[in-house]
Design brief:
Length: 344
């Protein structure tokens, strides 16, 4: 029986739920043997310590056959080809798993697959409810995928979104402010907190005064149409302001940790907010995204849900979350470094 015949029989058997033994003499490599997990990194140690503390026995190290399928699906969202599987299984190098992870992170499919993840998060949709329209969706999607392909530092990626202005057709990041169903300062603040801080403002440990100050950073965003069908301009409007409905006073932008920004009328408060948010010492920014990446890869966040990082919803392993946060900051917000750490 040649290998083509064997492959056909195996596919038929799988289709009918049968288990078909394949002899090594037919050209298939011997299955790798799973074994106990060895602690090889700081992250391994933190995971093992958390499991031990909770009385959970870790499973054995997965086989090469299982690993190659999982890592392809996790990193680029597709199964490996039969040739890719054979090549990986036949490789005797003990470092082949790490090398495969590195190779997958550089493939074009990585930016395409994770562009879909970000597309869901940023609500990239032509029609209802986002109504970005096809031209804007195409431009926005290409910008995100190119950012991922370049491995743009995460702080730069978010800064470009938060400070964006211009045509939704010609300045792709400006679609960030158009995808929200509501465009009031509070509604924009709700979305920004959810996306980049992992917080639901209605459940966060913030007072009404703190939420008002946070919302004021987005009070000077303006929108206007053009003669081109479905085109819209997002712009900085110096005359914009947020008024406290109780006191009647104009609300001064203030971050949730109490920092007040007294800005001149010609200063865009979004820039000041982006400076504060993306600073390495920010208590929410890096922590939120490493938790989200963990959630994307493993199906459950270290803090779960990943957009509910309030004090009363602690992490499964605070030490592990803190470690990943520090790694991201130390590596200048290189998100691929976090993917690589978790995958390894």
């Amino acid at each position: 029986m040649n290998w083509r015949h064997t492959a056909c029989v195996v596919r038929m058997g799988l289709a009918f739920g049968l288990i078909i033994p394949v002899r090594a003499g037919w050209g298939a490599p011997e299955p790798s043997r799973p074994g106990p997990v060895a602690v090889q990194s700081r992250m391994d140690g933190l995971v093992m310590a958390a499991l031990k503390n909770k009385g959970v026995m870790p499973s054995d190290r997965c086989s090469d056959e299982v690993f190659v399928r999982r890592v392809f699906l996790d990193v680029i969202g597709t199964l490996p080809t039969s040739d890719e599987v054979r090549h990986f299984l036949a490789d005797p190098d003990p470092g082949k798993r790490s090398r495969l992870i590195d190779n997958l992170l550089e493939r074009d499919e990585f930016s395409a697959y994770w562009g879909l993840k970000w597309g869901d998060l940023l609500r990239i949709k032509a029609e209802f409810p986002s109504n970005l329209w096809p031209n804007a969706v195409q431009a926005y999607d290409r910008w995100i995928r190119e950012s991922l392909r370049q491995n743009k530092p995460y702080d730069c990626f978010v800064r470009e979104l938060l400070t964006s202005s211009g045509s939704n057709f010609r300045s792709p990041p400006s679609n960030f402010y158009r995808a929200f169903q509501g465009r009031t300062p509070r509604q924009i603040a709700d979305n920004v907190a959810l996306l980049f801080m992992g917080l639901r403002l209605d459940k966060a440990d913030f007072s009404d005064d703190q939420i008002l100050g946070f919302s004021a950073f987005f009070a000077k965003i303006g929108y206007k149409g053009t003669d081109e069908w479905k085109e819209e301009i997002v712009f900085f409007n110096p005359a914009g302001c947020l008024t406290n409905t109780v006191t009647g006073n104009v609300v001064i932008p203030k971050t949730p940790d109490g920092r007040v920004f007294k800005l001149s009328p010609d200063q865009d408060p979004r820039v000041a907010f982006a400076d504060w948010l993306t600073a390495s010492a920010n208590p929410w920014f890096a922590r939120s995204i490493v938790n989200r990446v963990w959630y994307w890869l493993l199906g459950r966040g270290l803090v779960h849900e990943p957009d509910d990082m309030r004090t009363s919803n602690p992490a499964w392993s605070p030490e592990l979350l803190g470690y990943l946060e520090k790694e991201l900051v130390d590596r200048k917000f290189d998100l691929k470094h976090i993917y690589r750490l978790i995958q390894n």
